[in-house]
Amino acid sequence: QLQLVESGGGLVQSGGSLRLSCKTTRSTLGPYAIGWFRQAPGKEREALSCVSRNGGFTNYKNSENGRFVISRDNAEDTVFLQMNNLNPGDTGTYYCAAELKYLDTCSVRESGYTFWGQGTQVTVSS
Fold first, then answer.
1. 56/72 Cα distance (integer angstroms)
2. Which of 16, 20, 45, 104 is deepest in the core (most CB within 10 A)?
3. How far is the CA of 69 from the CAs of 21, 33, 47, in angstroms?
4. Nearest Cα residue to 2 out of 21, 20, 29, 38
5. Segment 55-96, tens digit of pLDDT
6. Would you say the C-alpha torsion 74, 76, 77, 78 has a positive or negative sign?
7. What is the pLDDT of residues 91-125, one digit of tens each?
8. Nearest Cα to Cα of residue 62 among 29, 98, 89, 32
9. Residues with Cβ within 8 Å of residue 65, at least 6 apart in sequence
10. Could you tell me if 14 and 88 are in contact, meaning their C-beta atoms sit under 8 angstroms apart?
């Protein structure tokens, strides 16, 4: 059972930035594609982005106008979501998810992931 831990959330003013991290305990993220998802208050969870196991492929569900960038550092065994120019509409709980992949690809669908973290809260004030 892969356990994922998100961190880096918090309270930020509109226009600010945050970098979220996704790590695992007692294992490695190396063989897994990782996705980032967000659930805003009162809304369904939505996909944001994903990165393949080797980092060679990334995908974004919505453009987010280029404000969000996913990356991974396999040496640090961490996947990041850099979020810039945040606005109150970005408020929500952010989750990372993992799926074992043999190919260097990833999915931006919830159904494409088996393992999920508990989420980290991001609040953007106006």
1. 10
2. 20
3. 12, 15, 13
4. 29
5. 999 999 876 668 999 999 999 999 999 999 999 999 999 999
6. negative
7. 999 999 999 999 999 999 999 999 999 999 999 99
8. 89
9. none
10. yes
